[in-house]
């Protein structure tokens, strides 16, 4: 381990002070909160603090970063982000002056953006974790698998035969999901070099079969683990090895963690300094990197997080299998990577059925809340030519259920593959016609949403999004809704409610709804369009 000496700290402070003065003259914004992925307000560089755009799963590194602060004097401010959002911020220049470094699971996708190459100063892998499959003991016994012999092809065969179901995070918004998608595509295509369009196309039928087994999706590994525990009917999870082993320790799950024999994609978590960072920040980054790659920190990292050390001589934590695995090839071009993501969104994965339960009561006329709601929903529609993740998906059924003192309308549209324009235009038209009037019947409207979803058929991810700016004042109450929910068929109980805290809505009320249904609460009380837009956008990863 290399800790910063007193003289080094003095040099660090001097450099940081000079950089801070320069930065203060040029910038003045604040970094975003994890709940608000839209463009943040800026914050000036602060001496001794490194502003880092990071993968969400790195929240478990805080104890190690606290140790690093004591050893080096460098404080780290982590801002969570999905891979593609982070890449876009860097490539577009929005990260300039906002962050001093990035710390994603991988820079592989970033390297496919040539305009981002000049933004990176240096990168140093800090730890590693391969994509793996965590399987319940019952499923493992049923399949007769020997963990050390399982391949991606064997997983595909089990799914195609209806013998295995699993959960995986959304690859458009989650680092682990993207790595999992590349792992599966590489494994099933048999690619021996960087994935090509021909590889992906050739594997398309098997990939489509593989994703019929996905019964859980999520925008984050944390919620996926919680939903997995609540459901009980899902056999396995595809995620990073470190996440699966941490679940076994922290959530008392008993997953057998399998690294498929034919190879995996591994996250190396490079701490990467940006060229736009002040000199003091770059010095802080180098001091932090040296510490994190030292023996003491490496031992702490692997024991706390189950990630594998990169420092020679540091033993991996107990439970980390030492057997080698082939590193599966990453797509060689951006067009292949984007094409794989687009294919997953619009063709491979199960389609979505979502009901947006929208408060259009009289109070929504205050402070132009109705205008902000319309803006957020309109942004979700994008256009027929929008990029992956920037509009409702092909095959997606979108229902708007505006309510006041009662349900006003039930407006449903399906985005047709190859011709998304008409449905997107219709949704925009319905959003534009929303008007505030009446009381607030939250629970009655939620019951109507569940009843609507119960009428549909087909194999789809179902969810309800509730947006209200107040408390329930009309219709049935909480006890009636609890009783209604308890009486639903088991498959309908698996439809979560994602609630948006907005305006004067009751946090306790919404928390109860989300906990009962296995959903999640999203905070849009920031008081501007960005906060509501960010909440709706983040929810997309869970649908």
SSE layout:
Layout: H1 6-26, E1 49-55, H2 62-72, E2 75-81, H3 83-92, E3 101-103, H4 108-111, H5 114-117, E4 120-125, E5 127-135, H6 137-143, H7 152-160, E6 166-169, H8 175-189, H9 197-210, E7 214-218, H10 221-231, E8 236-240, H11 241-250, E9 256-258, E10 266-267, E11 270-274, H12 279-292, H13 295-305, E12 308-309, H14 334-348, E13 352-359, H15 369-381, E14 397-403, E15 411-414, H16 421-432, H17 442-455, E16 461-468, H18 478-486, H19 490-493, E17 497-501, H20 507-517, E18 520-523, H21 529-539
Parallel strand pairs: 1-2, 1-3, 6-7, 6-8, 13-14, 13-16, 16-17, 17-18
Antiparallel strand pairs: 3-11, 4-11, 5-8, 5-9, 5-10, 5-12, 14-15
Which labels suit this protein?
543 residues; alpha/beta; D-Maltodextrin-Binding Protein, domain 2; Rossmann fold; 3 domains; seven-stranded mixed beta sheet; six-stranded mixed beta sheet; 21 helices; 18 strands; 42% helix; globular; disordered N terminus
Quick structural overview:
This protein has 21 helices and 18 strands.
CATH architect. name of the largest domain: 3-Layer(aba) Sandwich
Write the CATH fold name of the largest domain: Rossmann fold
Discrete helix count: 21
Q: Quick one: biggest sheet?
A: 7 strands, mixed
Q: CATH homologous superfamily name of the largest domain? A: von Willebrand factor, type A domain
Number of domains: 3
What is the strand content?
15-25%
Q: Given the C-alpha coordinates, what overall shape results? A: globular
Return residue spans where pLDDT drops below 50 for at least 5 consecutive residues.
1-42
Helix content: 40-55%
The overall pLDDT average reads 89
Question: Could you tell me the number of beta strands?
Answer: 18
Radius of gyration, in angstroms, nearest whole number:
24 Å
């Amino acid at each position: 381990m290399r800790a910063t000496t007193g003289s080094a700290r003095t040099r660090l402070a001097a450099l940081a002070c000079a950089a801070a003065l320069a930065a203060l003259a040029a910038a003045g914004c604040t970094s975003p909160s994890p709940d608000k992925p839209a463009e943040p307000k800026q914050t000036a560089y602060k001496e001794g603090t490194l502003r880092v755009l990071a993968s969400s799963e790195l929240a478990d590194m805080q104890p190690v970063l606290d140790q690093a602060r004591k050893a080096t004097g460098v404080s780290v401010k982590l801002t969570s982000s999905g891979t593609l959002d982070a890449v876009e911020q860097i490539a577009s220049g929005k990260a300039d002056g906002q962050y001093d470094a990035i710390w994603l699971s991988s820079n592989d996708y970033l390297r496919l953006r040539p305009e981002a190459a000049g933004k990176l100063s240096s990168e140093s892998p800090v730890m590693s974790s391969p994509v793996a499959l965590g399987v319940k003991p019952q499923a493992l016994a049923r399949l007769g698998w020997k963990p050390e012999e399982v391949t991606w092809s064997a997983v595909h065969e089990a799914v195609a035969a209806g013998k295995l179901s699993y959960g995986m995070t959304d690859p458009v918004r989650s680092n682990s999901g993207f790595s999992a998608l590349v792992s599966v595509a590489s494994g099933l295509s048999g690619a021996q070099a960087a994935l090509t369009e021909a590889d992906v196309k050739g594997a398309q039928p098997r990939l489509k079969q593989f994703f019929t087994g996905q019964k859980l999706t999520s925008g984050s590994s944390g919620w996926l683990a919680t939903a997995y525990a609540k459901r009980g009917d899902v056999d396995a999870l595809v995620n990073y090895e470190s996440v699966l082993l941490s679940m076994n320790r922290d959530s008392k799950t008993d997953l057998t963690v399998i690294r498929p024999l034919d190879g995996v994609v591994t996250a190396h978590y490079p701490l990467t300094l940006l060229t736009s960072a002040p000199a003091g920040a770059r010095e802080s980054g180098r001091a932090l990197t040296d510490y994190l790659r030292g023996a003491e920190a490496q031992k702490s990292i692997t024991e706390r997080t189950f990630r594998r050390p990169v420092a020679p001589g540091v033993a991996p934590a107990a439970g980390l299998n030492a057997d080698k695995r082939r590193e599966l090839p990453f797509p060689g071009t951006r067009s292949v990577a984007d094409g794989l993501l687009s294919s997953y969104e619009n063709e491979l994965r199960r389609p979505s059925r979502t009901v947006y339960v929208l408060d259009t009561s009289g109070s929504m006329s205050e402070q132009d809340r109705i205008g902000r709601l319309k803006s957020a929903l309109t942004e979700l529609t994008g256009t027929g030519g929008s990029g992956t993740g920037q509009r409702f998906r092909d095959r997606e059924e979108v229902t708007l259920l505006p309510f006041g003192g009662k349900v006003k309308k039930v407006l449903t549209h399906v985005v047709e593959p190859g011709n998304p324009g008409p449905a997107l235009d219709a949704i925009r038209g319905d959003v534009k016609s929303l008007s505030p009037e009446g009381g607030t019947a939250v629970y009655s409207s939620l019951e109507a949403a569940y009843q609507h979803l119960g009428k549909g058929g087909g194999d789809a991810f179902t969810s309800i999004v509730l947006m209200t700016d107040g408390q329930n004042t009309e219709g049935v109450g909480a006890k009636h809704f609890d009783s209604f929910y308890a009486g639903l068929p088991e498959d309908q109980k698996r439809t979560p409610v994602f609630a948006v805290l907005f305006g004067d809505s009751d946090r306790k009320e919404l928390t109860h709804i989300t906990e009962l249904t296995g959903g999640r609460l999203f905070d849009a009380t920031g008081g501007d369009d960005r906060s509501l837009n960010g909440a709706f956008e983040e929810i997309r990863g869970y649908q």
